[in-house]
Structure formats: C-alpha cells, structure tokens
Amino acid sequence: MAVILVVEDDFFILQSLEWVLEDMGHNTLPASNLAGALAHLLAEQPIDALFVDIRLDALPFGGYDVADQAIGLRPHLPVLCTSGSPLSHEMTGRFVPGARFLQKPYSPAQIEEFITETLC
Predict the structure, then answer these.
(1) Strand spans (E) along the chain
(2) pTM, whole model, 2 decimals?
(3) CA–CA separation, 120 vs 73, rounded Å?
(4) Which domains can be identified in the chain, with CATH numbers?
C-alpha cells in the first residue's frame, strides 16, 4: 500500500482518482492547488508518489510549480504528470527530473502500472 499525493483542480477527476487508488489499496492525499499540496508535503507523513495535473489553472506554470516545490521538499519523490493535452516538447522541458507523463483520459490499469513500476 502506497500513499499518493493527488493534485487535480477538477473536483470530479480528483474524486475518481481517489476512488481508483483506494480501490487498489492505496491511501490518497487529495489537493486541488499548490497550498493544499504544500500542506501535505510539509506535514510529517510519508508520501510515496505525486500524481499531478500539469494544467492547474490557478498557477503560472500549473502543476509544474507543484512538482518543483514537491521535489524541493522531497527530492526522491516519484512524479507522474498528467494532462488532457498531448505531450509536447515544451511540456517535457518543464518536467522535474525523472517525471513520467500520462495523458488523460487514463484507465485504472494505467494508473496501477505507474504505481507498480514506480514503487516496486
């Protein structure tokens, strides 16, 4: 069982991700913005991976800002970036080192594959 910080500003996507991850036996730490993500990252609790939407509307660089802050606080945290937009060179140029990308819509099997590959 892993603890996954999920940062997504669309309530329905966040809710469905929580359900999928919990059905897989994982604990989720939901956040809809950078402040919520930082609250989890600064708390003294384990976090095994970050699942972040890179198109968060409230931030100049969206989920990139969240990932940058997360890696600054927890340098070895695995990061999965997601977006409804196709992957582009501009997007990958902003990824934190080692980040992986999963395009929306994604399936529960793709989410499970990321977690299995990342944490095992």
Answers:
(1) 3-7, 27-31, 49-53, 79-83, 100-103
(2) 0.91
(3) 22
(4) 1-12+25-96 (3.40.50.2300)
Q: pLDDT per residue over 56-90, tens digit each?
A: 766 556 788 899 999 999 999 999 999 888 878 87
Residue 70 CB partners (closer than 8 Å, separation 6+) = 5, 37, 41, 50, 52, 77, 79, 96
Return the amino acid letter for 53. D
What are the angstrom distances between the C-alpha of 54 and each of 50, 74, 94? 12, 18, 10
Cα separation of 24 and 37, whole Å? 22
SS3 104: coil
Is the CB of residue 4 less than 8 Å from the CB of residue 28?
A: yes
Ramachandran quadrant class, 18 (left: phi over 0; alpha: psi -120 to 50; beta: rest): alpha
Residue 113 burial (CB count, 10 A): 13
